[in-house]
């Protein structure tokens, strides 16, 4: 009858681990016990429950913690860059260092993002666009790259033809719809541009259905407005554009941020788009103009 010899290595290792773990737990309990037996470094009458992360002073309560900070000028914040010997380096120190590096990374990234947010985009392309727009009496400005409007801008300038191909956004507020059109020639008239959207037969069927209110309206009951840039939010004004003129002519002597945004508005809502220009004190532009024809003394207030 053969005998089976069982390996003893695993059994001995388990036993040794228990002894080691037991001693570690006892040491930890001993440390806690040692701290609890220490007297409060502030009042000296109570057992310590807390230890200052900055200077390791023992304290027993929140009032004593506050007194310690006031008396010593201690911040109570651990010095994250203080030297730690290799023998004292443990998992908590490693975790603290890791968090310190994370905080440093976040701070550096935040500083970079702040610069991006504040600084306008300056590239060879943007300089070229602004320069050529200036030759056409158009003031073209750019946003930082962090802005969506900046990232989506596809405006291009053809040097040989001296032609802008604009990134164009069309807003139809009465149908709660927006459309973006890329590479729109500045030689096109607004009427030609709108034909693809609101013409009764030449527009795309799906778009025509979505813009049904505009399609059914008379063409002379549709106006196009563009917001005047650089004004306060409580004093918004608009340019009224000429549908029969080209996009280039309509943009001339105006300021654009990245690309043109046109508001296509039906007649009943024209009053919601106050125009840039002289406004009399009574707030009624049309009525004031009629009054001005008969009485020359009122002076306009320019906004």
From TrEMBL:
Required for box C/D snoRNAs accumulation involved in snoRNA processing, snoRNA transport to the nucleolus and ribosome biogenesis. CDD domains: zf-HIT_BCD1 (cd23023). Belongs to the BCD1 family. It comes from Oreochromis aureus (Israeli tilapia). The keyword Ubl conjugation applies. Keywords: Isopeptide bond, Metal-binding, Phosphoprotein, Ribosome biogenesis, Ubl conjugation, Zinc, Zinc-finger. Residues 1-31, 281-303 are annotated as: Disordered. Gene3D superfamilies: 3.30.60.190. Interacts with FBL, SNU13, NOP58, NUFIP1, RUVBL1, RUVBL2 and TAF9. Interacts (via HIT-type zinc finger) with the RUVBL1/RUVBL2 complex in the presence of ADP. This is Box C/D snoRNA protein 1. GO terms for cellular component: nucleus; pre-snoRNP complex.
